[in-house]
Design a protein that fits this description.
The complex is a heterotrimer of chains A (about 250), B (about 625) and C (about 300). Chain A has about 250 residues and is α/β, with parallel strands linked by helices. Chain A is about 25% helix and about 30% strand. Chain A is built from six helices and 13 strands. The N and C termini of chain A lie far apart (about 55 Å). Chain C folds into two domains: about 5-165, HUPs (Rossmann fold, 3-Layer(aba) Sandwich), CATH 3.40.50; about 195-310, TPP-binding domain (Rossmann fold), CATH 3.40.50. In chain C, the strands form three sheets. In chain C, strands 5-9-4-1-2-3-10 form a seven-stranded parallel sheet, sandwiched between helices. A five-stranded parallel sheet of chain C has the order 13-12-14-15-16. In chain C, helix 3 packs across helix 4 (about 95-105). The radius of gyration of chain C is 21 Å and the shape is elongated. Classes of the chains: A alpha/beta (about 250), B alpha+beta (about 625), C alpha/beta (about 300). Chains B and C meet through loops of B and loops of C. Strand 13 (about 230) of chain A pairs parallel with strand 16 (about 290-295) of chain C.
């Protein structure tokens, strides 16, 4: 069976972001970009399923400009068999992404779609659930463990205070949480081989989708700065302050 | 403990733009190396350095490698797994030839990658580095049978390699070495003791391939009687499986100032009858083979210096940003600021930054020359680049490693008292860096190599040719800078923006300073060549070998800084790319001109007038 | 023009997040209905009817709502949506799982994880792990929202008197089946919702030393968390982790013990109302976000603090 993994190119996890002075967003020019960390985990899971003989083909797909080719190259170097760029330069919001992915999934007919639980830029945590809704598939978000046996997927999910296990018939959407696996590093020989593979390209129009944004971002700003704290000299003083000043104990 | 971050922007700027990867793509075997492939390799190497190697650096220092009574060595926790990941990711074979399943990538790409390994964890990196050296030696000189039997598994990293040169009485002077190799059928039996054997024993690999310098019976005395032998820890059967344990053992580990994770072994050969060894190449040519690899090895150690200095800089900068202390002069408010507000702290950090950038640029330039000297299809072009390499190598090695020691020390200074506390992590860089100006030829040996072999021997021909080329480049840049400034004056007048104009006038100052520096080195070289005519004055010249090498490094680095500033100004004028990055480049080059190139006149005076005071102070006067 | 709050509950009782969500819904200024879909959830529905400000409670009861699976719930909410202009759920694991599914069925772009309500159609939500805030306006015909519970003060649980209306369940879709739930058994409150959180870092030096924090947590009714460094060092399990990649908490009182304050950790706790830092290193970055800092050896300070409470 085929598996589709949806990837997003985001500002690298280690970059300290800067809000643009005009409030229109976050500075992305000349900033290091990488694959969304949760998507790396999703991709790793797909590659492991292939290595286990459960999956026959891993197709990685992303949406965005030509610049997104780098994450697709990385996906090839990690073990994706095919990579596809749905090329667009509009501001992408989760519903538009899910709509494009729906059409893409209908075209490719995978039995499993893996995504990260959220992207670390907009922190929306929506795309997987929306894709499941649009396809009318089962969903298992925040996956901690994924097992596929025959036509069934058993997914253990991270929930508040513990874990929950669901079972669903394929096809199914699974979104990856942090502990699902530890992604491997791309190998140098695979990077060299990936160079020779082609990146397939599609337009949203080819999929019959209009990806225009439906929400308007009016302002992006820095979070409020806390007022400076004080240093207390003893445990006694700390208790006194917490009781009488902060009134939290 | 702060984490290492690969300076990818800087690396890309150098490789893509300043050093000129284009020239490599002209070589047929590397025609397919495109900028985006290079970016991807650098990105993935950075992930590995930051994610795997850097987190182990402090642990490696604290715990170190430990030898057990049975002679086995246990590397620090996590190192064995990291090695496994390292070889699985294929980094071990980045430069090895494709015929042995290596990637065969040029040094111009391998260099920034190796800088990341050194910057994140130099003690770990020594193992693959030594293996690389052993692979090269076998590849250069070994018989086909040896190559087939040993290289594939060394390239894959399944086995590691070591280099066994030093003996207690034979350090920098290998002529004194005594290890014996007695012919015994198709092999030799080795007896002797080797010291300072990096990763001579470890728990990373199932076999260790030692390359050992030794003398055969009746070999000529001195360096002309030294042969090279391959001595595996476990003998290898015909079918490739591992056989008996060979008679080579780690008898102790040195207790060192730094690189604690790297086991520095005393190796005993033949304590139980003789260690089986196989001749590599021909008898008595061992040192010659070593010399073929010497440039590469010295270059690598120079890169250790760059990597460590960068790491020390990052560590100090992070601390300076976070540490709140005092009120900087010139600010009225009594609000305390981070120590980055203090001019002297910024001076220290800029000193570190400027030296690292200069050293890196000079080394990356050298890496391109190494590639062209080895692989250009035209033999005469290869030869030209080889003379360039010969001048660059001792400078890259000595200037960068001395620089690393000084910058790591300055890094501690930025931290104040906290820097002296091991837990802060700043001290490790100094302790780790301290060996780099010693091994693979001390700074003294590099200085003698430059002034003696590379300058006096050809009466300065190679050096003068290099200086003429630099002069020509700089004058072209200067006229371009004039034009740039002209067009910029108009633009600034229109936009009423004087601040950007300042950078363009600084550019001319930088280029002029670099030009003056080239002339200073020319004068220094003229003095060396003229003085060397009188053989009796050779000791005096060699007494000035260090100031001459330091001057050369300042000049090569300074020219690279000036060229970087020129490129940056062009980007700024076209308003393209990362403005902050390019502005910082110009300012750093300006700093280098006034804080480093300003040393040059003093160095020239020390060279031309200071040697005598050393010669006049004979050994018995101490 | 009415608002539907999707209640998070255990069939027996409402989860605290529901009260915060109702509070946010009330800010929109329209009548608030609450959906309690469950199985044998009469008590939860009853509880919802008492919450101050609730206009009516819609109660759907069927076996396939027992575990509030997103696939089942979404179909029901889609059907109810015709009567509401706003659908709102807590941005908890429950709400995050469900709400986007509902939104997609309605072809509405949702706004999730809202921190503040600026106006009827404009909301503030965190992006980049809270390192920036985005003010977002919806142009949709309906609003589908999730709100971060810690950003809205809970409405009073008692004092209201809403009617409970039984509604019909939809047919089960049975796309997925619930198998089991494995909750960490602990008397302590959940990390995500606790009023007080005490977190330990590398400074504790071992897993055993976390017992010291437990004694303090017992006194304060606090949950226990940890920095990534402590989790990486194996002192405590992964689900203790507070930070960018772990749990994001915003308790009334956060006590960081032996935590230096890496940026990633700060991202997970810097919205706490009052932050206390106890660390022997006066330069630890944690002090820069602390309201009260105590430079001390935690092995003395923690027992002393426990004794003083």
């Amino acid at each position: 069976m085929k598996v589709v993994v949806a990837l997003k190119r985001v500002i690298d996890y280690n970059v300290k972001i800067r809000v643009k002075t005009d409030g229109t967003g976050v500075e992305t020019a000349n900033v290091k970009m990488s694959m969304n960390p949760f998507d790396e985990i999703a991709l790793e899971e797909a590659v492991r399923l292939k290595e286990a003989g459960i999956v026959s083909e891993v197709i990685a797909v992303t949406l965005g400009t030509q610049a997104c080719q780098d994450v697709l190259r990385t996906a090839l170097a990690v073990g994706a068999d095919r990579v596809v760029l749905i090329e667009t330069d509009v501001e992408l919001q989760p519903l538009a992404v899910a709509t494009c992915l729906k059409a893409f999934v209908q075209k490719e007919q995978p039995r499993l779609v893996l995504l990260g639980k959220q992207a670390i830029d907009d922190d929306a945590n929506q795309t997987g659930q929306m894709l499941a809704a649009l396809l009318g598939w089962a969903q298992a978000t925040n996956a901690f463990k994924l097992e596929i046996a025959g036509d069934h997927a058993t997914v253990t999910r991270e929930i508040d205070g513990g874990l929950e296990t669901l079972e669903a018939s394929l096809p199914v959407i699974v979104t990856a949480d942090l502990r699902l696996n530890t992604p491997r590093y791309a190998t140098l020989p695979n990077i060299m081989k990936a160079k020779k593979k082609t990146i397939e390209s599609l337009l949203p129009a080819d999929l019959g989708v209009d990806p225009s944004p439906r929400l308007k971002t009016l302002l992006v700003s820095d979070p409020p700065v806390r007022k400076p704290g004080i240093v207390v000299n003893s445990v006694t003083e700390l208790v006194e302050k917490l009781r009488n000043e902060a009134r939290v104990i | 403990m702060s984490a290492y971050r690969a300076p990818l922007k800087e690396m890309r700027f150098l490789v893509h733009e300043l050093v000129g990867l284009k020239r490599l793509a002209e070589l047929p075997q590397w025609a397919e190396i495109t900028p985006d492939l290079l970016d991807q390799i650098l990105d993935e190497a950075a992930r590995f350095a930051e994610g795997v190697l850097s987190p182990l650096n402090a642990i490696g220092d604290r715990i170190g490698s430990i030898r057990s009574d049975d002679g086995s060595v246990t590397t620090p926790p996590g190192f064995k797994e990291a090695y496994q990941q390292f070889v699985e990711a294929g980094w071990n074979s980045i430069a090895t030839p494709q015929e042995f399943e290596g990637q065969g990538l040029p040094r111009a790409i391998g260099t920034p990658v190796s800088e990341m390994w050194h910057g994140s964890n130099v003690a770990f990196t020594l193992c693959p580095l030594l293996t690389q050296g052993a692979i090269e030696a076998i590849h250069i000189a070994g018989s086909e049978a040896l190559k087939q039997q040993y290289l594939p598994r060394m390239v894959s990293g399944e086995w590691a390699g070591t280099m066994n040169l030093t003996e207690p009485q034979a350090g920098s002077d290998l002529a004194a070495l005594r290890t014996k190799a007695i012919p015994n059928g198709d092999h030799y039996l080795l007896h002797g003791q080797k010291i300072y054997i990096t990763y001579g024993e470890q728990d990373f690999t199932s076999n260790i391939i030692h390359l050992v310098l030794a003398r055969t019976p009746g070999a000529p005395a001195g360096i002309k009687g030294i042969s090279l032998f391959l001595v595996p820890k476990f003998l290898v059967n015909e079918d490739g499986s591992l056989g008996a344990r060979n008679d080579v053992h780690c008898v102790s580990l040195e207790n060192k100032l730094g690189i604690h994770a790297s086991p520095t072994c005393v190796m005993a050969y033949g304590d139980q009858g003789g260690a089986m060894g196989y001749l590599v190449g021909e008898e008595n040519r061992g040192l010659e083979y070593m010399f073929i690899m010497m440039n590469a090895a010295r270059f690598s150690v120079g890169m250790e210096g760059v990597g460590l200095a960068e790491a020390a800089y990052q560590h100090a900068l992070k601390y300076a940003r976070e540490r709140v202390q005092g009120t900087p002069t010139g600010t009225d408010s009594h609000q305390r600021s981070s120590i980055l507000g203090h001019p002297d702290v910024r001076r220290m950090l800029l000193t570190m930054r400027a030296h690292v950038e200069a050293g890196r640029a000079m080394a990356y330039q050298g890496s391109l020359y190494l590639d062209l000297a080895a692989h250009h299809p035209d033999a005469s072009v290869r030869a030209d680049y080889q003379t360039r390499v010969d001048v660059f190598i001792p400078v890259i090695k000595a200037w960068n490693t001395e620089m690393a020691v000084n910058m790591a020390s300055l890094g501690i200074q930025v931290h104040g008292g906290m820097g002296y506390i091991e837990e802060t992590g700043a001290a490790q860089f100094l302790r780790d860096a301290r060996i780099t100006s010693i091994y693979e030829g001390t700074t003294g040996i590099q200085c003698n190599d430059l002034i003696g072999r590379k300058v006096m021997r050809d009466q300065g021909r190679a050096m003068f040719a290099l200086l003429a080329e630099l002069e020509q480049e700089l004058s072209a840049h200067l006229s371009a800078a004039h034009e740039l400034e002209g067009s910029q004056i108009e633009a600034s007048l229109k936009a009423c923006d004087a601040s950007s104009l300042k950078l363009f006038s600084e550019l001319k100052v930088i280029l002029n300073a670099a030009m003056v520096a080239v002339h200073t080195l020319k004068r220094a070289t003229e003095w060396v060549v003229a003085t060397s005519v009188d053989r009796s004055r050779h000791p005096e010249i060699f007494a000035g070998a260090w100031p001459y090498l330091k001057l050369t490094g300042n000049v090569l680095g300074g020219v690279m800084m000036a060229k970087a500033a020129q490129h940056s100004a062009q980007h700024l004028s076209a308003k393209e790319g990362d403005i902050d990055f390019f502005e910082a480049k110009i300012r750093t080059a300006h700093f280098f001109a006034f804080h480093v190139l300003s040393e040059n006149e003093g160095l020239l005076a020390t060279l031309t007038q200071g040697g005598q005071s050393i010669i006049d102070f004979p050994p018995n006067a101490f | 023009m009415t608002t539907l709050v999707i209640a998070e509950h255990s069939n027996l009782t409402l989860r605290a997040s529901t009260l915060n969500t109702i509070a946010a819904a009330l800010q929109l200024g329209e009548p608030v209905s609450v959906l309690v879909a469950g199985y044998g959830a009469d008590m939860a529905a009853q509880e919802a009817s008492l919450v101050v400000g609730v206009h009516q409670v819609l109660h759907a009861d069927a076996p396939h709502y027992a575990e509030q699976l997103a696939e089942e719930m979404a179909v029901l909410i889609q059907k109810l949506a015709t009567d509401f202009t706003t659908l709102i759920a807590p941005a908890t694991v429950f709400g995050r799982n469900l709400l986007p599914r509902v939104a997609a069925l309605l072809d509405i772009a949702p706004i999730t994880d809202i921190l503040a309500i600026e106006s009827n159609d404009t909301f503030v939500r965190p992006i980049y792990a809270g390192n920036a805030l985005a003010k977002v306006q919806t142009l949709e015909t309906k609003k589908v929202l999730s709100v971060r519970p810690t950003s809205f003060e809970a409405t009073a649980a008692q004092g209201g008197n809403a009617s409970v209306v039984k509604i019909e369940a939809c047919a089960a879709v049975r796309l997925s089946q619930f198998k089991s739930r494995d909750l960490a058994s602990s008397d302590r409150p959940e990390l995500a919702g606790a009023r007080v959180v005490i977190s330990g870092g590398r400074g504790l030096q071992s897993g055993e030393n976390f017992q010291m924090l437990e004694a303090l947590a017992d006194k304060l009714g606090a949950a226990i968390g940890a920095s990534r460094a402590a989790v990486d060092a194996g002192y405590v399990p992964n689900d203790y982790q507070v930070g960018q990649t772990g749990k994001i908490v915003a308790p009334e009182l956060y006590i960081a013990v032996g935590i230096s304050g890496a940026v990633q950790h700060l991202a997970g706790m810097k919205d706490s109302k009052v932050i206390v830092a106890i660390n022997k290193d006066p330069d630890a970055p944690i002090f820069q976000v602390a309201d009260y800092g105590l430079v001390a050896d935690l092995f003395q300070a923690i027992p002393e603090l426990t004794a003083a409470l």
